[in-house]
Amino acid sequence: MNPILSPLRYLILVDEKGRRLVRRDAWTVVIIALIITAPFVVFDGTNYFGEKGFLDRVGSFSSILTGFYVAALVTVATFSSDDVDKKITVGKVSLTAGGTSLSRREYVCAMFGYLAFSSLFISVLSILMVAVYSSIASYFIKKMQEHQVDPYWCSTISSSLIKISVSLIISHMIISSFHGLYYLIDRLYYKDPKILPKRGAGGR
Hints:
61% of the residues lie in helices and 2% in strands. It is built from five helices and two strands; from the N terminus they run E-H-H-H-E-H-H. It has helices at 21-24, 26-42, 54-78, 104-146, 151-185; strands at 14-15, 93-94. Helix 2 crosses helix 5 and helix 4 (104-146) packs antiparallel against helix 5. The model has no long low-confidence stretch (mean pLDDT 83).
């Protein structure tokens, strides 16, 4: 895989039900994206693309998250525990359907690699969108007027689609972050139960 796109490998990992991870949380991601986008579509005067608007602030926050995700990735990669390198037995994740399960370390590294990539991508995207969106929108409105197309509805529909698309990326990062936190809080330190030898006489 291309080194630049290798963090996206996380999306094509397969869960124990044979679903790509990008499909596993699809409905939740769509619902959150619609909730995020709805106020900016329904209400007038909201600021999604502008300076100090929603995307601008999310981009600033994402740039901070990038450092957190990279630190989490380094922590997981260097975490010393034999249990972390054992194959996942509950909630298996593999590279292909029916393939060998990944270890918890492999899975969490793939997850935080994707999250670091996503947060960096959102940060760069927000800078570009804030800088050029108004100019691009004005250009297309002018072209629509030249072709006698109603610029209001065209710009409203195209703007809404762009907002939903961007919100989908943000929503997937949010959901993946919850999966990452769950593993950092609980599953990463989980140890398989062991049967202790029976004590002898006298409790020894």
